[in-house]
Specification:
single chain; 82 residues; mainly alpha; two-stranded antiparallel ribbon; 2 strands; 55% helix; RTA1-domain-containing protein
């Protein structure tokens, strides 16, 4: 008899502590680079700073989704493991 399918969002268990630590590190790095960019007027670093900000937002999302379980508001791109 086949076992019922179990919903999982990730194929592994993401670490909440790791996501929080990296959120803080990327956030601080973003602030530091913005400060340096404005002081030295090196506006060509704007794409780098935007990348740091998106990385920070991504780790916030990872921290929020690390404890998600079905049913939840996750995207339809989930995996079903049998």
């Amino acid at each position: 008899m086949a076992s019922p399918e179990k919903f999982i969002f990730y194929a592994y268990q993401p670490s909440m502590a790791g996501a929080v630590i990296l959120t803080v590190l990327f956030g601080l790095s973003s602030i530091w680079h913005i400060k340096q960019m404005v002081q030295s007027r090196t506006w060509y670093f704007i794409p780098f700073v935007i990348g740091c900000l998106f990385e920070t937002v991504g780790y916030i999302g990872r921290a929020l989704s690390s404890s998600e379980s079905f049913p939840s508001s996750v995207s339809p791109g989930h995996l079903l493991i049998t």
